[in-house]
Design a protein that fits this description.
This protein is α/β, with parallel strands linked by helices. The protein is 47% helix and 17% strand. A seven-stranded mixed sheet has the order 3-2-1-4-5-7-6, with helices on both faces.
Length: 252
């Protein structure tokens, strides 16, 4: 059995997100306050399942469907996380850039509609047109009265150069402190992930799926709030912020 990689994933991600646990905590708390103690939750671009794990721990009645398209990260969630949660965590391989992902989610949920759709540190991988489409798909997928919570960096742009510089300096300081305390770098973590049983084949599949995709431009928070409103959410707002790290919410 290889050494567990989820704790090291959390350490390496926390180097890039200054209060990652605070961001998870507000998402779990708002899911509970808005949806009650036993919600059906979809975690979009779940990776190895960090946010899913926080929600399952905070809400013992919750069920979570984690969706991602990285075969290696999904495999880690399957090996290290799913067995700890008595069938409350299921995982789905689907590409959020593919228009068919909501149908795959519906099928995986047996036709049930989720009370909450959540995501962290992930939807910045979508170009703005895809992001607007995804918010619309999420609004359609959600149960009546359901909510979407998306935690991610939304970058300050040329309109706020001082804030942009402060956020960049704060990011650098956060990374230096985490690495000095022993957190693995992104590259070092992936090197370890490639070494798991079957890791080389999963890494090759990951490369085939993602390496050709160009990085999208950064987006500011107002784009997300406008996109949520455009997507059909009756209410959209910022529910948490640390410099350029936010949680935005949309409620049907
Ligand atoms: C930095 S990781 C964040 C993972 C996790 N949500 C967390 O907070 O630790 C970004 C995730 O987005 C996923 N992702 C990126 N593009 C995707 C796509 N088109 N479809 C599904 N997942 C995608 C990646 O595979 C990766 O798991």
């Amino acid at each position: 059995m290889s050494e567990p990689l989820l704790p090291a994933w959390d350490d390496q991600q926390a180097a890039y997100i200054a209060d990652r646990e605070g961001r998870f905590a507000i998402i779990a708390s708002l899911v509970e306050l808005h949806c009650g103690p036993a919600p059906l939750v979809v975690d979009l671009a779940c990776g190895p399942g960090s946010l899913s794990a926080r929600i399952l721990a905070a809400l013992p009645g919750a069920r979570v469907l984690g969706v991602d398209h990285d075969p290696l990260l999904l495999e880690l969630a399957r090996r290290e996380l799913a067995p700890r949660h008595d069938g409350r965590l299921t995982l789905l391989d689907a590409d959020l850039e593919d228009a068919g992902w909501p149908a795959a989610v519906r099928a995986a949920l047996g036709g049930a509609r989720p009370d909450a759709i959540v995501s962290t540190t992930a939807l910045h991988w979508l170009f703005p047109d895809r992001l607007v489409r995804l918010y619309g798909q999420a609004a359609e997928l959600l149960a009546d009265g359901g909510g979407l919570l998306n935690g991610d960096h939304f970058r300050f742009d040329g309109r706020t150069p001082t804030l942009r510089a402060l956020a960049a300096a704060h990011d650098t300081a956060t990374q230096q402190a985490a690495w000095a305390a022993g957190a693995p770098s992104w590259d070092a973590w992936w090197e370890r992930a490639h070494a798991i049983d079957g890791g080389a084949a999963l890494a090759a599949e990951r490369s085939a799926r993602f390496d050709h995709r160009p990085p999208p431009p950064p987006t500011a928070v107002d784009l997300h709030l406008a996109a949520l409103a455009q997507a059909g959410f009756a209410e959209a707002g910022t529910v948490w912020q640390l410099l350029d790290d936010y949680v935005v919410a949309g409620f049907k």
